[in-house]
Amino acid sequence: MEYVKAAEVLPEWLLREIQQYIQGEFVYIPTLPSRRRKWGESSGAAQYYQERNEEIRRIFRTGASVDELSGKYGLSVDSIKKIIYSKK
């Protein structure tokens, strides 16, 4: 995250208004909910895990055991069960 000088981006009237509440401190202004990205959208992690989990379900349906999948993917038996039995 990069810091931006308020005086460079805010109108003077708004800067004066904010200064009545806080001066010389850092303020985080969150993104509007409509502009937020979901976890993993930017990095591609969400897509990776979705595809991996679909593959795990497909392999399980073809007869692989939970223990086999656990070893193959380096996940706990409980994690494999959660993936297999989730409603996604």
From TrEMBL:
<dbReference type="InterPro" id="IPR009057">
    <property type="entry name" value="Homeodomain-like_sf"/>
</dbReference>
<dbReference type="InterPro" id="IPR049739">
    <property type="entry name" value="YraL-like"/>
</dbReference>
<dbReference type="InterPro" id="IPR052411">
    <property type="entry name" value="c-mor_Regulatory_Protein"/>
</dbReference>
<protein>
    <recommendedName>
        <fullName>Mor transcription activator domain-containing protein</fullName>
    </recommendedName>
</protein>
